[in-house]
Structures are given as structure tokens and as C-alpha cells.
Design brief:
Jelly Rolls; mainly beta; 0% helix
């Protein structure tokens, strides 16, 4: 068993993306965005699960917007282009990247 600290890193930057742990085909990341900050459009060659822990994040999929809160889970298949931004408050998320 091992625990991982999910510290806040937004005091020194408007966004933080950091690896928490990894397995053979799975990586777990921490993504934090200060209110109003965003990650530009990109994709990945793996399945991705997004779990919002705090705040509200808006994901944009080629013009279709999806709002995520701590009560929602998002799955993105490989190569789905997306961007993400924090709304009016800081956002903290766990990103699970699963290679096929």
C-alpha cells in the first residue's frame, strides 16, 4: 500500500500537471488550473478518465462543451481532440491515462 499527497501547486503557476504514479500501461496525473486558466487543444493516444476533485472544469470537444464537477466522471477515447479551462474557481483533477 502507498498513499500519495495531492498538494496544491497553484501558488507558483496558473496551471500544474504532474505525474502521481504509473503502472505498466496506466499513468495517474494531477492537473490543477487556476480560475480562468486553460490547457490548449490536444489529444492523446490512450483512453483517459478525468475525475474532478474541486471546482468546475469545462472541456471543449470541437465546439461541444461539457461541464465537469466533482459529481461527474469523463471518459475520452484515444485521439479525441479537447481543451479544458477552469471557470470561476481553481480546479483540481485526477487524470488516469490507460494505454490500450
Amino acid at each position: 500500500m502507498q498513499t500519495y499527497d495531492l498538494n496544491n501547486h497553484l501558488e507558483s503557476a496558473p496551471k500544474h500537471i504532474g505525474a502521481l504514479m504509473g503502472f505498466e500501461r496506466t499513468k495517474v496525473l494531477q492537473l490543477q488550473l487556476r480560475a480562468g486558466a486553460f490547457v490548449p487543444e490536444h489529444d492523446t493516444d490512450a483512453d483517459v478518465l478525468i475525475i474532478v476533485q474541486k471546482g468546475t472544469a469545462v472541456f471543449d470537444f470541437s465546439g461541444k462543451q461539457v461541464e465537469l464537477t466533482p459529481q461527474t466522471l469523463l471518459h475520452m477515447p484515444p485521439l479525441e481532440k479537447h481543451s479544458v479551462r477552469a471557470l470561476d474557481e481553481d480546479v483540481e483533477m485526477v487524470v488516469i491515462r490507460i494505454e490500450r
